[in-house]
């Protein structure tokens, strides 16, 4: 059962407001585990209702791992890259329009903790999101100023998914939050988890 999250106003995210990236209603994204590791496959981020949100073009793992996110029309939103020379695994999202963000990893004995930093497109404020939880179990919350704006939970999986190594998990996102940013956070955390194995 998805949590009920309060709408966020003004909108929250580095990308300018658009109908595809910000929903007026709470939205649940369906993400696939391990879809990026070693494969370099392309991936479409969709809602549980089947609506396309954005696309990710992966590249084969390299020293400068990068994944290009585009909107449903193929216009580039940002490229997600490993941040080199950082103590804890971190990623930067570079946008051709300058709407950038960074996902920073932090040391924690139990579970995982990350923070996400960006300039909010709607009001120009500097924003920090916190990501806390157990990424191995796909259970985490993303908060802004102590308020939950997204929740990650492993969805039920069937036998075919289990043996095909393509289990899925769901991400519930509050209304008014940049869906492409939340998808990118999940991809970054997935990459971080895969590298740790």
Description:
By secondary structure, the chain is mainly β. It has a single domain, classed as LURP1-related (Porin, Beta Barrel). The chain contains two helices and twelve strands, in the order βββββββββββαβα. The protein has a twelve-stranded antiparallel beta barrel. The longest helix is centred in the C-terminal third of the chain and has 18 residues, at 179-196. The radius of gyration is 15 Å and the shape is globular. The model is unreliable at 35-39 and 157-164 (pLDDT under 50).
Net shape: globular
**Strand portion:** 35-45%
Could you tell me the mean pLDDT? Answer: 81
H and E string: EEEEEEEEEEEHEH
Secondary-structure-based class equals mainly beta
- Tell how many strands the DSSP assignment holds: 12
**CATH domain topology:** Porin
Count, helices: 2
Model regions low in confidence, pLDDT < 50 over at least 5 residues: 35-39, 157-164
How is this structure best summarized?
This protein is about 10% helix and about 40% strand. It is mostly beta strands and about 200 residues long. The protein has a single domain, classed as LURP1-related (Porin).
Layout: helices, strands, pairs:
Layout: E1 27-32, E2 42-47, E3 52-58, E4 66-70, E5 76-82, E6 91-94, E7 101-106, E8 112-119, E9 126-134, E10 139-144, E11 147-154, H1 159-164, E12 168-173, H2 179-196
Antiparallel strand pairs: 1-2, 1-12, 2-3, 3-4, 4-5, 5-6, 6-7, 7-8, 8-9, 9-10, 10-11, 11-12
